[in-house]
UniProtKB/TrEMBL annotation:
This is TetR/AcrR family transcriptional regulator. Signal peptide: none annotated. It holds the Pfam family TetR_N. PROSITE patterns: HTH_TETR_2. Gene3D superfamilies: Tetracycline Repressor, domain 2. Keywords: DNA-binding. Residues 9-69 form the HTH tetR-type domain. It comes from Saccharothrix hoggarensis. The keyword DNA-binding applies.
Length: 184
């Protein structure tokens, strides 16, 4: 893994701070590459080379909370982290993912709909592997990979946005699915 140059790291931090401020003030609709470049003091070309487009910038803004989330389910305290029974961990993981998804819905909507497979890879793969492992431990008789996809599907940003459900309703729906899948 190559280390980021100090000046590049500083520029990245300035860019992400400026982008986060713009999103906080004006929403995702206000996120324009030229404005982010001007606010962060870098050239527009630098911004496009670094992030590709608005969706790439949205992914970068999402990255910090995703890193925290992954640390929580990989090594944090139970029930999201290790130490709780697999079924409890699945439920806690999904509830935490609902909170994370609804908190960053506009950014996720942009990032996940940038192309036909934009939702998949990276974070989705990590979430899927984690759920597959836990489901396989709790229910070795089911297709754990399929079950993981089924449980992650309701958390697609475009579906959450389309349905307009609040986090409590999404969690209740997932709990109902889990009641039929995992032992109590």
């Amino acid at each position: 893994m190559t280390r980021e140059r100090a000046d590049a790291a500083k520029n990245r931090a300035k860019i992400l701070a400026a982008a986060a401020e713009i999103v906080a003030e004006r929403g995702i609709e206000g996120l324009a590459m030229a404005e982010v470049a001007a606010a962060s003091g870098v050239g527009v070309g630098t911004l496009y080379r670094r992030f590709g487009d608005r969706a790439g910038l949205a992914h970068a803004l999402i990255d910090a909370s995703e890193r925290e989330f992954q640390a929580a389910f990989l090594s944090g305290p139970p029930p999201v982290g290790p130490g709780a029974p697999p079924a409890d961990r699945v439920r806690a993981f999904l509830h935490a993912l609902v909170d994370r998804t609804t908190a960053q819905l506009d950014l996720l909507l942009m990032a996940e709909t940038a192309g036909p497979f934009a939702r998949f890879g990276g974070a989705y793969d990590a979430h899927h592997r984690h759920l597959t492992l836990l489901i396989a431990q709790a229910r070795p008789d089911v297709d754990a990979a399929f079950a993981a996809d089924a449980l992650l599907s309701p958390l697609a940003a475009n579906l959450v946005s389309h349905r307009g459900l609040d986090p409590a309703a999404i969690k209740a729906g997932l709990d109902a699915l889990l009641a039929g899948l995992l032992p109590a």
